[in-house]
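Sanity check

After download, print the first record. It should look like this:
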Amino acid sequence: MGAAPEAAKVRRFEEQVLVHLGDLYRAALRLSGSTPDAEDLVQETCLRAFQALEQLRHPGAAKVWVFAILRSVFLQPATPGDVSRGIPHNTKLLGERRQSDG
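Expected structure tokens:
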């Protein structure tokens, strides 16, 4: 990819995805419960969004699209052997909340 198309992609990413960075971080913090994990989630989300930006057909749907990526990143372990976040960890938390509620 040449310099001009790459610059256009960066500009589009900034205008359509990065404008939601604050909302993404707040959602990631709420999902993960920790600042470092939220930062990792947002970083991975932005990386995947940038790599797949050509799949975003409707700029008006950018927020929904990037939040779907965030959800996908959150539900998948960071690496095949990493279960520090994702379904196993969060299922445990849900079970702990239910026990403390009742």
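If your output differs, re-run the checksum step. Summary of this record's structure: The domain at 3-76 is CATH 1.10.1740.10 (Rna Polymerase Sigma Factor; Chain: A).
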